[in-house]
Amino acid sequence: MNRPHIPLRHRVATLMFGMLVPLLPFAACRAQGAGAVPASGLSEHSLYRVTGRWTNFDGRELNLAELRGEPVVLAMVYTSCTMTCPLITSEMLAVQRALPAEARARVRFVLASFDPARDSVGALRQHAEKMALDGRWLVLRASPADVRRLAVLLGVSYRQLPSGDFDHSNIISVLDPQGVVTFQSPRIPADRDALVKAVSAVARPSLRPRR
Amino acid sequence: METVVSRGVILGMWLVGLLGGGASGASAQQASGTRYRPVTAGHVRPFYLAGVADTGVRVPGFQLAERAVSNAEFLRFVKANPGWQRSRVPRIAADPAYLRHWESDTVLGVATVASAPVVHVSWFAAQAYAEWRGARLPSTAEWELAASRFVRSVGPTPERLQTFLLGSYAQAGTEAIPSKTPASDEGIVGLHGGPWEWVDDFNSVVTSGESRGDGTPDDGLFCAGGAALTADPGNFAAFMRYAVRGSLRGSYALGTLGFRLARDASPPSGRSPQ
To answer: What confidence tens digit (pLDDT) does each residue in B135-193 have?
Structure first.
């Protein structure tokens, strides 16, 4: 089949238009006002249906729904934890290293703190530096209510002990670009092969939403 | 990342509008007054003892609703917040059993007693309702503290309460309103004998299934240790409550589970309801 010859200049213009088109539905929804429109095309099971406000270790505020479109590996930890939390982070780092380069460039790694009282933005930043987390990582804090909400969404149990430490699940969750949990590793040490396989599956280019 | 963020902010705005509970119905409080009863400070011995002194955990005083939230009250909420109606709520926030005892999205129907505690509600829905009312759900410790105070009606020893509860379980019925069980010493109705109730931190039961390997003392509560680590292995009702809480997910909408509102003892003045 012969493709018609299109001058390069037109092709560039088409490409640029193509890049703008995905933004149009968002602009339209904004015009209709908050709450007027259901989250179009977002799965019934997406975490992004129920989210809260979080602050990253660089001070930037975000809603978890902003991660829509990216494959995500997410765990809940607290940075003064000396038991399993560093192991959870290390496990996620190992997964990051084990991914094929193309997937590695796309996957977002997220640590969300149980401990808003002690995990200030500064404490989160220290943790990110100590663990040598690169630009694909977010380390987040939120209000106790938003922390609880995320934990419930993920099926993560936790409670603070009188000592200030937390008992908690060691769950690492894998989210597809829609924010649907596709895999959870329930324990540390994790089954790394299964985890890498699950992350690779949600990082397939075909899963990138048309947007 | 920047484009993702800017699009996401917009997305986040409607999500908050849809499900955040928000301020969309701030006048609801006036429409239906919830009567709160003060619960004085005290100590609770958590059902499992790990990491807790023998005297238990001190719980500050707070206020707890005299009754669980009713069908009629919850109906007002879903009318004011259509995103929480049965046909519109996303599955992640409420499973298919959500409000299924009602006739439709906004009609209770003849089979549902308007004044009975609402059941078939998920934790997310209960949370959103509480936010809408400018209140919150009680914590596990708060709920257990309030539910332990039956000296006047039942007697001074915990055993008497247990015997009483087991006796009332034996007369199982389907009565919707727990009118037969006495109010607590502080005037709170339906803590025992009615539906179980959501608590804010229901997911604080860290059982061995999930924390295995992290070396916490909770290992074995439901596994090898059996009930040996629990504060009171004979307390069947408490065992059931903790077991139920430990098995819940936030989207579950059980027919045996409702909720009631709580608030701090003296809300800081000028704080707007969230």
So the answer is: 999 999 999 999 888 877 777 666 777 777 777 666 655 444 445 667 888 999 988 87
Q: How far is A69 from A82, CA to CA, in rounded Å?
A: 33
DSSP string, B111-125: TS-TTSBP-S--HHH
| pLDDT average, residue stretch A180-196 | 91
From CA B24, how far away is CA B132, in angstroms rounded?
A: 8
Cα distance between residue B232 and residue B218, in whole Å: 15
Q: What is the pLDDT of residue B47?
A: 63
Q: Is A159 on the interface with B (CB under 8 A)?
A: yes
Q: What is the pLDDT of residues A120-135, one digit of tens each?
A: 999 999 999 999 999 9
Residues of chain A contacting B207 with CB distance shorter than 8 Å: 157
Nearest to A19 by CA among B14, B6, B3: B3
A45 reaches B (C-beta below 8 A): yes
Q: What DSSP state is assigned to residue B236?
A: H
Q: Is-cis flag, bond preceding B233, omega within 30?
A: no
Q: How far is A1 from chain B (nearest CA, A)?
A: 36
A104 contacts chain B (CB < 8 A)? no
Residue in A23, A42, A60, A63 to test binding to B, most B beta-carbons within 10 Å: A63
Nearest by CB: B91 against A33, A45, A152: A45
Residue of B95, B211, B245 best to disrupt the A interface, most CBs of A under 10 A: B211
Size of interface A-B (CB pairs under 8 A): 153
Three-state SS string over B136-174 comes to ECCCHHHHHHHCCCCCCCCCCCHHHHHHHHHHHHHCCCC
Task: Name the CA dihedral angle for B87, A24, A199, B18, rounded to a multiple of 10 degrees.
Answer: -30
Query: A84 — contact with chain B (CB < 8 Å)?
Result: yes
Q: Check residue A54 and give its pLDDT.
A: 97
Contact A185, B237 (CB under 8 A): no
Closest residue in A to B136 (Cα–Cα): A145
Q: Is B38 on the interface with A (CB under 8 A)?
A: no
Contact check, Cβ <8 Å, A170/B210? yes
Neighbour tally for B105: CB within 10 Å:
16
Q: At a CB cut-off of 8 Å and minimum separation 6, what does A184 contact?
A: A154, A155, A171, A172, A173, A174
Q: What percent of chain B has pLDDT over 70?
A: 64
Q: What is the pTM of this model?
A: 0.77
